[in-house]
């Protein structure tokens, strides 16, 4: 999802710095996405970003198998939407 968000940024002529890059992508997507699903997509993306941070830097085993399966479904939906936007 992060890579798809960054791809949209790049296609629009923007890039992130190394500091705070994940947060910058979330903010960019909040401005760029136009749909009734925007708020849900941003909430999911940001929640997954925070959980990833916790897994990498703080805790282990905080994601259940069900959460992982749902995250994959959301990621597919998100990437498809971003792909459509990049093509236009």
TrEMBL record:
InterPro entries: HEPN_dom
Residue ranges occupied by any HEPN domain in the UniProt entry: 6-81
Gene3D superfamilies, A to Z: Nucleotidyltransferases domain 2
Pfam families (alphabetical): HEPN (PF05168)
Protein known as: HEPN domain-containing protein
Lineage start: unclassified sequences, metagenomes, ecological metagenomes
